[in-house]
């Protein structure tokens, strides 16, 4: 069977094949996933699923019958091992599959600790897929001691779950502050205080020197000489785009699989979307790690597979849930030179400006600030900084300016 073949059955892959059928495409469509379960949501893994508040079936993006009903060949638990560009064929173990158009939605992979510092010990986990979370879930026992390495959103979300379940939590961040790579000091300060208020010990500016243990992790030594006793470890030190298949096939790579504005790679007939793909943006290139980008970019590529010729224009937004706080982020804060804090009745928002231009908004339990900020950014408008700073001013007036 030829037709359109999609490698990677995550959010992007599932969105792409669904969009093809919604647009009326009647040709053969195949979606291949390495995991043995239908495409599912990943964000709840480190939140509600780990807390035990969401059952497996509720994670599924669509009921499994959706793929049969829409004549989508869903091949699960199968690893693609190579792409033959000349024959337009992929290898799955001892089998080959011919394609007319190929889409790579291979996502990303978590960075792991080197084995030389104990990364291969039992009891050391990452948070990326269902298997990871199912493996660590039995460790979440009240009073257990967990070390979380990395103060990004994944690490903080894992810390929130662990603290909520009564564990003793210490989080170590090598940078000067948590969230340093992705947020302003004001946002870092807010979440540091939130976690400390729930009993989490946060250690910043200190790295992990090595993990200790025979077979199973039992301790850790930090770069400041401090030694900890731990029962298990969660590593949240970022992700990298999964470009292995593309690289091996000779497809051009540039901080991910390099695509043009339409989503086409350097090889005709091969496309990419989601976490694994970098696309033109402003004067450079951009790769976004988020569910909204995976959906929007995949749907754009689906349209272009059918001849739309539509350039992908991202409208970035992100979210994180920690304890009872919902953080919503609109825009990209790269290049900001000042941050304005706006207090709300039950929340707070941080507005990023470059000069007079609004770049991004971090809104914690403040849906109104998020909504207004996102609409302004998406429409290319800015915000009056005096209005933003005044908690009594009507934010919606910014939309009428």
Round the Cα radius of gyration to an integer and report it. 22 Å
Largest sheet: 5 strands, parallel
How many domains? The number is 3
**Continuous helix count:** 12
> Which residues sit in consecutive blocks of at least 5 with pLDDT less than 50?
none
Shape: globular
> Share of helix among residues?
10-25%
**What's the CATH architecture name of the largest domain?**
3-Layer(bba) Sandwich
CATH superfamily of the largest domain: FAD/NAD(P)-binding domain
Task: Please tally the β strands and state the result.
Answer: 26
Mean of the pLDDT scores? 96
Taken as a percent bin, the fraction of beta residues is 25-35%
CATH class division of the largest domain? Alpha Beta
Distance between the termini: 55 Å
Which class of secondary structure composition applies to the elements? alpha/beta
What name is given to the CATH topology of the largest domain?
Answer: FAD/NAD(P)-binding domain
Instruction: Provide the spatial order of strands within the biggest beta sheet.
Output: 3-2-1-7-19
InterPro entries: FAD-oxidoreductase/Apoptosis, FAD/NAD-bd_sf, FAD/NAD-binding_dom, FAD/NAD-linked_Rdtase_dimer_sf, Reductase_C
Keywords: FAD, Flavoprotein, Oxidoreductase
Cofactor: FAD
Protein name: FAD-dependent oxidoreductase
Give structural notes.
The chain has 401 residues and is an alpha/beta fold. The chain has 3 domains: 4-109 and 240-305, FAD/NAD(P)-binding domain, CATH 3.50.50.60; 112-237, FAD/NAD(P)-binding domain (3-Layer(bba) Sandwich); 324-400, FAD/NAD-linked reductase, C-terminal dimerisation domain (Enolase-like, domain 1). It has helices at 11-22, 48-51, 56-59, 65-69, 130-136, 153-164, 185-197, 244-249, 291-305, 367-378, 385-389, 397-400, and strands spanning 4-7, 29-32, 72-75, 80-84, 89-92, 95-98, 101-104, 108-110, 124-126, 145-149, 168-173, 201-204, 208-214, 216-222, 227-229, 232-235, 239-241, 257-258, 270-272, 277-281, 284-286, 317-322, 325-331, 338-343, 348-354, 357-364. The strands form 7 sheets. Strands 3-2-1-7-19 form a 5-stranded parallel beta sheet. It has a 5-stranded parallel beta sheet with strand order 9-16-10-11-12, with helices on one face. Strands 22-23-26-25-24 form a 5-stranded antiparallel beta sheet. Strand 4 and strand 5 form a beta hairpin. The longest helix has 15 residues, at 291-305.
């Amino acid at each position: 069977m030829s037709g359109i073949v999609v490698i990677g059955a995550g959010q992007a892959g599932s969105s792409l094949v669904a969009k093809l059928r919604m647009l009326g495409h009647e040709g053969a469509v195949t979606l291949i996933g390495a995991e043995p379960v239908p495409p599912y949501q990943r964000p709840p893994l480190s939140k509600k699923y780990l807390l035990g508040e969401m059952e497996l079936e509720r994670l599924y993006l669509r009921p499994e019958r959706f793929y049969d009903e829409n004549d989508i060949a869903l091949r699960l638990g199968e690893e693609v091992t190579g792409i033959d560009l000349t024959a337009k064929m992929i290898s799955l173990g001892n089998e080959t599959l011919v394609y007319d158009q190929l889409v790579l939605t291979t996502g990303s992979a978590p960075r792991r600790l080197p084995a030389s510092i104990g990364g291969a010990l039992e009891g050391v986990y990452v948070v990326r897929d269902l298997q990871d979370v199912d493996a660590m879930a039995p460790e979440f026992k009240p009073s257990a001691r967990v070390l979380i390495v990395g103060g990004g959103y994944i690490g903080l979300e894992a810390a929130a779950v662990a603290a909520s379940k009564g564990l003793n939590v210490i989080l170590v961040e090598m940078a000067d502050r948590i969230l340093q790579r992705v947020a302003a000091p004001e946002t870092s300060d807010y979440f540091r205080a939130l976690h400390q208020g729930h009993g989490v010990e946060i250690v910043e500016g200190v790295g992990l020197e090595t993990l200790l243990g025979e077979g199973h992790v039992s301790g850790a030594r930090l770069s400041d000489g401090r030694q900890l006793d731990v029962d298990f470890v969660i590593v949240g030190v970022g992700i990298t785009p999964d470009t292995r298949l593309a690289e091996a096939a000779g497809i051009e790579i540039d901080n991910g699989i390099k695509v043009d504005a339409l989503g086409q790679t350097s090889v005709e007939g091969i496309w990419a979307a989601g976490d694994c793909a970098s696309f033109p943006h402003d004067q450079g290139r951009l790769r976004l790690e988020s569910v909204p980008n995976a959906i929007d970019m995949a749907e754009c590529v689906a349209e272009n597979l059918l001849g739309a010729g539509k350039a992908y224009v991202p409208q970035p937004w992100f979210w994180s849930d920690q304890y009872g706080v919902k953080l919503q982020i609109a825009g990209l804060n790269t290049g900001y030179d000042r941050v304005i804090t706006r207090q709300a009745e039950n929340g707070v928002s941080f507005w990023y400006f470059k000069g007079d231009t609004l770049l991004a908004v971090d809104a914690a339990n403040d849906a109104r600030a998020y909504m207004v900020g996102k609409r302004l950014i998406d429409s290319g408008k800015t915000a009056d900084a005096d209005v933003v700073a005044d908690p009594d001013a009507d934010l919606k007036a910014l939309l009428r300016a």
